[in-house]
């Protein structure tokens, strides 16, 4: 028993949690999304920059605009999920640093004066937060269906602006019929971990 | 109560979990690292590519080689943590895809024949896995001290090879005296989430 997290929580978040490919029509409420955010917002990022931004696609009009930008195999999932979220990185996150990192006012200009540095840092740290968000969806008893198969430039132009880079589109809901593919293998500890 | 994860687990993983800057000398065992890996290996990645690789810095000789590559403020933490892990992305992860994704043998050549495509995908998906790993460290009742302030090229040359890109160095252990800075603010829901 090397973990202190209780086994039911281990199962909920990792062991039994699976990427869902179909969903029931049970709605995902704003209260659920708020609770997920209020939990995972505490996940660590470098200099507390928290560059993840979330666009909830709720209206059928917006859903219709999103679907053509998804890859073929992802269109039906995107059409049927009760809620779809576009996750993006805010490349102008440094504007919030005086609020987010009041103890280190020098960081904004020291590391993030240039856009390429911001883009690299935003992409990495928003990816960390995307993973926390997936864990949070599962913490709400919901299934996540994260997708990277879509036209990123198309999604950016349709829903975001030049300052935001799409990272992932996530279907969210209760799993439907035949929601899960067979669990794929994972690499063994010795294939991943080296000790020096 | 929009979350089904029990409140103690919420606290352990997110609400009360904090980045530690000092550590006790209680060792982190191989069994703990194995348990963490065996939990978080199930976190989702695109096409199950799981490109994260972990280098555990256990010997004092290796620790001495790592410290000079850390930024000034991170050197003392890296020197004192019971265990330090270098997280990297394997840019040749596609070689494992026949094992990891047996149902889709075409993906390896379709998307990952070229190194730049692999590097982009590995960086993003290994970042997701780095976040799962941080959550897993907390699930083991330990504190993580993730650091991005280091000389990446120096660490790569010292510990890795041309096929691996360092992502993060993580101190792992039980928090010591004055381990935590005050909790920094987080952005509000309405600053992060837009509904369309």
Question: How would you portray this structure in words?
Answer:
- The structure is a homodimer of 196-residue chains.
- Chain A has one domain: 3-Layer(aba) Sandwich (NADH Oxidase).
- Helices cover 42% and strands 16% of the residues of chain A.
- Chain A has nine helices and five strands; from the N terminus they run ααβααβαααβαβαβ.
- In chain A, strands 1-2-4-3 form a four-stranded antiparallel β-sheet.
- In chain A, helix 1 (7-15) crosses helix 7 and helix 2 (30-40) packs across helix 7 (115-139).
- Chain A is globular.
- The first copy, chain A, starts with 6 loop residues before the first helix and ends with a strand.
- Chains A and B meet through helix 1, helix 2, strand 1, helix 7 and helix 9 of A and helix 1, helix 2, strand 1, helix 7 and helix 9 of B.
- Strand 5 of chain A pairs parallel with strand 1 of chain B.
- Chains A, B: InterPro entries: Nitroreductase (IPR029479), Nitroreductase-like (IPR000415), Nitroreductase_HadB/RutE (IPR050461).
Strands across the major sheet of chain A, in which order? 1-2-4-3
CATH structural fold name of chain A: NADH Oxidase
Share of helical residues of chain A: 40-55%
Number of folding domains of chain A?
1
- Architecture (CATH level 2) name of chain A: 3-Layer(aba) Sandwich
**What name goes with the CATH superfamily of chain A?**
NADH Oxidase
Keywords (chains A, B): Oxidoreductase
Domain Nitroreductase (chains A, B): 17-174
Organism (chains A, B): Streptomyces spongiae
InterPro entries (chains A, B): Nitroreductase, Nitroreductase-like, Nitroreductase_HadB/RutE
């Amino acid at each position: 028993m090397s973990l202190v997290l209780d086994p039911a929580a281990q199962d909920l978040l990792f062991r039994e949690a699976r990427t869902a490919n179909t969903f029931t029509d049970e709605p995902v409420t704003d209260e659920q999304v708020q609770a997920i955010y209020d939990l995972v917002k505490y996940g660590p990022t470098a200099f507390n920059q928290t560059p993840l931004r979330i666009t909830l696609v709720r209206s059928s009009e917006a859903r219709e605009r999103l679907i053509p930008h998804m890859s073929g195999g992802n269109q039906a999932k995107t059409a049927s999920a009760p809620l779809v979220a576009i996750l993006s990185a805010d490349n102008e996150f440094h504007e919030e640093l005086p609020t987010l990192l009041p103890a280190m006012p020098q960081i904004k200009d020291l590391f993030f004066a240039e856009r390429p540095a911001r883009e690299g840092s935003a992409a990495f740290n928003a990816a960390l937060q995307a993973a926390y968000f997936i864990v949070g969806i599962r913490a709400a008893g919901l299934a996540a269906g994260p997708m990277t198969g879509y036209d990123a430039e198309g999604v950016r132009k349709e829903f975001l602006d030049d300052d935001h880079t799409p990272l992932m589109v996530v279907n969210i809901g209760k799993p439907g019929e035949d929601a899960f593919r067979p669990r794929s293998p994972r690499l063994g500890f010795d294939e991943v971990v080296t000790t020096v």
